[in-house]
Design brief:
Elements: H1 9-30, H2 38-56, H3 61-74, H4 76-94, H5 97-108, H6 111-129, H7 132-149, H8 154-171, H9 176-185, H10 189-217, H11 219-222, H12 227-236, H13 245-255, H14 260-278, H15 280-287, H16 296-308, E1 311-312, H17 318-323, E2 327-328, H18 335-353, H19 356-366, H20 371-388, H21 392-409, H22 414-428, H23 436-445, H24 449-452, H25 457-471
Antiparallel strand pairs: 1-2
Helix pairs in contact: 1-2, 1-19, 2-18, 3-18, 4-14, 4-16, 5-7, 5-12, 6-7, 6-8, 6-10, 7-8, 7-23, 8-10, 9-21, 9-22, 10-22, 10-25, 13-14, 15-16, 18-23, 19-20, 19-21, 20-21, 20-22, 20-25, 21-22, 22-25
Length: 494
């Protein structure tokens, strides 16, 4: 097919409207189980509607598949990371790393300060590593487990983990999105970080205050004696500070700028060695071997089972076993999330191929009359692309490329655009269940997106903060116009 037509705004919106209606109904019918398959098929149906719009406007099937292929290819790294996170979670469980984190965490933390401490801990780790994903996949899993044991709602704890992790991700010079946003806007990295701190610091302070208030709400009813809980952990696992060598090694590798995949693989293999040495009874049980039989074959089978399949270790304690605290998904447990990401990439690829994303973005740009309108439309474009393209990088790249000249025309420094891209494109991605970030965090933490969404305070406060600054003209940096010297006049004449 040739002579492609520009689709209308209604045609661009139609697949999104259909998708949102089906997704909303899925949540109504299936609840948290919607991500187990119904939402994936909803994305395929939305993609089919987008393809029908494309065929009507003479876009070829080959073009659509080319964009789908490109989108899926762009997620290859994320898919591999998800598989390695599943493997790491399995070995960290059977090696005693996660139980040790829970054991010592219960002694140090209490419900009153736990949520605020979670924000601070994850913020520091994410700031150091530059990765919200790595932070959630390591310390985040343990913090959710500790929170459940303390009697705190899992959505609340996951929201605290995500709030802290995305603060560090935004502000770290090691983060890919922190480098991408200024590159798209034409700003320098450290000017971008300094300017972004103006909205990010107030957002994280408010987030901390809210979590402190929530912590005091749970103070009276959850200050329980953890003696029995601690004893059951020690009866089930070998617990020692030496087990923390595994997470420390992973964090050090990332600080040394090792690839996340390499660091996660190393953490998985090191934990497997620790499991073989320190937790032989656990490995034996997972392998299904007879009592007393522990050889290389049993050890290999037990460790491989934990890496590739779902694992659950009963502790004999009612509180732990009711929550299935000592369980891990393994690589197999990540397949549902991977499935969701692939279907989202099909929808996003076809929407991009038929020009729907560009059409929606241009429609937003056309109504940006004032400075505030320009900021608001940038935020709207980022959120819209996180919903439609299901990828935070596109939510930064497309608006960054599209709005760059508009910011220049209004005499706005590029840091305004780069900050707005981060305040809306980066942080809201995790609030969309079918976005790669939302799917990843829900899969890793074991908490559905819609469950943690109300408590991901930093993530929805960030775009509100950047719009507030724009509305009241607070710290809006203008371009510095260079003074031109008339010809024939030198600096010495002044």
């Amino acid at each position: 097919m040739t002579n492609n037509k520009q689709i209308s705004i209604f045609e661009a919106l139609l697949p999104v409207i259909i998708l949102v209606i089906i997704l909303a109904y899925n949540v109504y019918v299936f609840g948290d189980g919607a991500t187990g398959g119904p939402n994936q098929f909803a994305l395929i149906l939305g993609a089919a509607v987008a393809a029908a719009v494309g065929f009507k406007n003479h876009f070829s099937y080959e073009r659509m598949m080319e964009f789908v292929s490109k989108n899926i290819k762009s997620t290859s790294s994320a898919i591999l990371i998800l598989l390695m996170v599943g493997a790491l979670a399995g070995t960290w469980l059977i090696s005693g790393v996660i139980p040790a984190m829970v054991y010592y965490g219960l002694q140090i933390l209490n419900p009153t300060w736990f949520l605020a401490a979670t924000v601070i801990i994850t913020a520091i780790i994410s700031l150091a590593t530059g990765s919200s994903w790595t932070t959630s996949a390591t310390i985040g899993i343990a913090l959710v487990g500790i929170g459940r044991t303390l009697g705190l709602p899992e959505g609340m704890v996951a929201g605290a983990v995500i709030s802290g992790a995305y603060f560090g991700d935004k502000m770290s010079p090691l983060s890919d999105t922190t480098n991408l946003a200024p590159a798209m806007a034409g700003a320098t990295l450290f000017d971008h970080i300094k300017y972004m701190a103006l909205t990010t610091v107030p957002s994280i302070i408010i987030t901390l205050v809210v979590f402190i208030i929530l912590g005091f709400k749970y103070e009276s009813g959850n200050m329980m004696d953890h003696t029995e809980l601690l004893a059951s952990i020690k009866d089930t696992f070998y617990i020692s500070p030496v087990l923390f060598l595994v997470p420390v090694a992973v964090i050090l590798m990332i600080l040394k700028k090792a690839s996340p995949l390499v660091a996660l693989l190393a953490g998985t293999l090191l934990a497997a060695v620790f499991a073989a040495i320190f937790q032989p009874e656990i490995v034996q049980k997972i392998a299904g071997a007879e009592n007393g039989v522990y050889n290389f074959e049993v050890m290999y089978k037990g460790i491989m089972n934990a890496i590739v399949d779902k694992t659950y270790i009963a502790s004999g304690n009612e509180i732990f076993d009711a929550e299935k605290l000592f369980s891990a998904k393994g690589m197999a447990g990540m397949l549902g999330t991977i499935w969701l990401i692939l279907c989202a990439m099909v929808f996003g690829g076809i929407m991009e191929a038929i020009g729907a994303l560009e059409r929606l973005s241009n429609a937003l740009l056309s109504i940006a009359r004032s400075t505030f309108g320009l900021f608001a439309n940038t935020v709207g474009s980022c959120v819209l692309l996180n919903i439609t393209a299901s990828d935070q990088y596109l939510a930064i790249v497309v608006p960054g490329r599209m709005f760059s000249k508009a910011y220049q025309d209004k005499n706005l420094a590029p840091e305004n655009l780069s900050r707005t891209l981060e305040d809306s494109g980066t942080v809201t991605s995790v609030l969309i269940p079918w976005n790669t970030c939302g799917a990843f965090q829900a899969g890793v933490l074991g908490v559905p997106t819609l469950t943690y969404l109300p408590f991901a305070i930093f993530n929805y406060l960030s775009p509100i903060m950047t719009l507030t600054f724009a509305a009241f003209g607070i710290k809006i940096k203008r371009l510095v116009k260079k003074t031109t010297i008339p010809s024939g006049i030198t600096d010495s004449n002044f």
